[in-house]
Specification:
By secondary structure, the chain is mostly helical. The chain has 29 helices and five strands. The chain is elongated and about 155 Å long.
Length: 615
């Protein structure tokens, strides 16, 4: 091998790489293009075999690694499942604790019963069921404007009998959790029989037991009394509302409301005032009801119920001016925060309909009617009453007569007896006949009044209210009917006891004085009526008609325009304004007023005739 140059093969072939690596030397021999020496071929073959063995080894190692990972993955999955199960268990326990803490149920344990009654089928479970049935009946018997959630104990439909289990079961564990964390009202009781008498001992939780004694043959009634004791002790306001259906229990009801008024809770005090005011009103004690209502307003001036209740008392007394002020204030004031939402909507829309009628706002009346009809629990009589009033304002005699025949007495305010409803329905049919000047119908209806009025005034539920409000509530309508027949003395008798601050009474007296030819008295009474309700349109309209009959056309026009300004959509101001304008020699203006009256009341024959004459 020569010094200082590249290494070459002995035959002068391509130089070999300067490396000790046999693989590289063998690959150089391959790349030289010369026949491959055996030694080089052997090296490359062994290298290829070695590579194949390495590949198999890598594959086997990968397989072994996969087999090793599978248990680890399985173990990881099991840990995840265990963690999920633990989280689910914790979540379930948290949910159970939350539900148990929010539980507010009435639970009646089976009563301890004497063997004689058990043999007759009156077991402890049956007795507990009778008590629970009575509580359920009372809860559903009458709706109240008070929200169920406002009661300290609001069981809803969660009323149950606790059947004892032996051993610790899942159900028993749930019961224990509810008793520990919840607000269950638990009732237990014993029935003891001595001879033909039985005594039911009722216990509410840890409270003092109540004993109810009576004949063994009257066990069902005694269990009803036990159910009443449960509701009276836990939800006294709701119980008082329930017994209000029975006038014989009015004193018991009054005592409950009196206790609520003295309660430490402002909520209970307020609802006690609402209940007592309603009781006094329905009993005909309007002065007492008004006094309590004024105290309600003083205590809670920003709640609508007080203002609304005061308005209805004023309406009973014929004080339309103050009634409108109270109704308007109620509509501007929020409902009682703890009032039932549906009942509050009905009360608000009913008040809005009354306000619209007094203000002679026909579009607002129609809106109130649509709203009342669309409520989830509409009052059919209330909805019909609004439709009747709208038909009367529009002089739609046929529609008003049809609605009056269906029964219209407004039963929004608490209880109303059938006898009182019949009387008020008769009076409203009399209004239709008087508006139509139908003397035959007027005489027929007036002939029915004495018997129906006597029944209403002697009814044990609200007879006193009917007597107290006779002179302000329905006698003015009868007086108008007698005036239409020319029976002035009878009309005067109907108005003899009417108070001076009663607006419909004052207007009826003014009409009577005019019919008798006493114009000075009529003028004075019309002025008094306007003073009683200066923000209502009807006194101005009736004074305008009186002045029109006296041929004081300019003064009549001013009153009709005042009535138009205070009303909305009422046809009467426009019709009589047209009459006053025509009498003053202003035919074009009169024709426009009559046309507007016909547009507002298309079935008013008198307005149609006036417009036809002007054509």
């Amino acid at each position: 091998m020569a010094q200082g140059g590249d290494a070459t093969s002995a035959g002068g072939t391509a130089p070999l790489p300067d490396t000790p690596d046999a693989i590289e030397i063998a690959m150089a021999a391959v790349n030289s293009g010369q026949p491959l020496p055996d030694i080089a071929r052997t090296v490359l073959e062994k290298q290829a075999a070695l590579l194949d063995e390495e590949a198999r080894l890598v594959k086997r190692q990968a397989h072994e690694l996969d087999l090793k990972i599978i248990p680890e993955r399985v173990l990881a999955g099991l840990w995840l499942l265990l963690a999920a199960a633990v989280l689910a268990l914790i979540g379930g326990l948290a949910w159970a604790v939350w539900r148990a803490a929010r539980t507010d149920a009435l639970v009646v344990e089976p009563f301890s019963m004497p063997p004689a009654l058990v043999q007759q089928g009156m077991t402890g479970e049956v007795a507990a069921g009778r008590v629970l049935d009575q509580v359920s009946i009372m809860l559903k018997s009458r709706s109240s404007t008070r929200s169920a959630s406002s009661y300290q104990h609001d069981w809803g439909d969660d009323l149950k009998i606790d059947i004892p289990n032996t051993g610790l079961t899942l159900d028993q564990g749930w019961k224990l959790l509810r008793r520990w964390l919840g607000r269950e009202t638990r009732i237990s009781g014993d029935v003891v029989q001595r001879g033909d008498q039985v005594t039911i001992v009722v216990r509410l939780g840890d409270g003092e037991p109540q004993r109810i004694t009576g004949p063994a043959t009257d066990i069902d009634s005694l269990l009803v009394a036990a159910g009443e004791h449960v509701l009276r002790s836990t939800q006294p306001y709701r119980y008082a509302v329930y017994i209000s259906q029975n006038p014989a229990r009015r004193e018991e009801q009054r005592a409950i409301f009196q206790r609520l008024i003295e309660d430490r809770s402002p909520t209970e005090r307020f609802w006690g005032q609402i209940g007592l005011a309603a009781l006094e009103r329905e009993a005909g004690n309007l002065d007492a009801g008004r006094r309590i209502t004024m105290q309600m307003i003083a205590d809670q001036p920003n709640w609508a119920s007080g203002h609304r209740n005061l308005a209805y008392i004023e309406l009973y007394l014929g004080r339309w001016g103050p009634a409108v002020q109270s109704l308007a204030q109620a509509q501007r004031t929020p409902n009682v925060p703890l009032a039932d939402a549906a009942a509050a909507r009905r009360a608000r829309n009913g008040a809005d309909a009354n306000l619209a009628f007094l203000q002679k706002d026909l579009p607002r009346m129609m809106q109130a009617r649509a709203t009342l009809a669309g409520l989830s629990e509409p009052l059919p009589r209330q909805s019909r009453l609004v439709r009747f009033q709208a038909a009367m304002m529009a002089h739609d005699i046929e529609q008003a007569g049809m609605l009056a025949s269906q029964g219209l007495a407004d039963i929004v305010l608490g209880n109303t007896s059938v006898a009182r409803q019949s009387l008020l329905d008769l009076v409203q049919r009399l209004e239709v006949a008087t508006l139509a000047n139908d003397h035959v119908a007027i005489r027929s209806l007036l002939a029915q009044v004495p018997a129906i009025a006597a029944a209403a005034q002697n009814d044990p539920l609200d007879g006193n209210l009917t007597r107290i409000t006779a002179s302000t509530n329905w006698r003015p309508t009868m007086a108008r009917a007698h005036i239409a027949l020319g029976e002035f003395d009878r009309a005067a008798n109907e108005l003899a006891n009417a108070p001076a601050d009663c607006l419909p009474c004052t207007l009826a007296r003014a009409a009577l004085a005019q019919a008798r030819g006493d114009m000075a008295t009529a003028a004075r009474l019309h002025d008094a009526a306007v003073s009683l309700a200066p923000r209502l349109p009807q006194p101005y309209l009736e004074r305008g008609r009186f002045l029109l009959a006296q041929r004081k056309y300019a003064a009549a026009e001013r009153n009709f325009r005042a009535a138009e300004k205070l009303s909305n959509g009422w046809a009467d101001p426009q019709k009589y304004l047209g009459d006053a304008l025509a009498a003053q020699g202003r035919p074009a203006e009169a024709r426009a007023a009559w046309a507007e009256a016909v547009r507002r009341a298309p079935k008013w024959a008198e307005a149609q005739a006036a417009l036809k004459r002007a054509a």
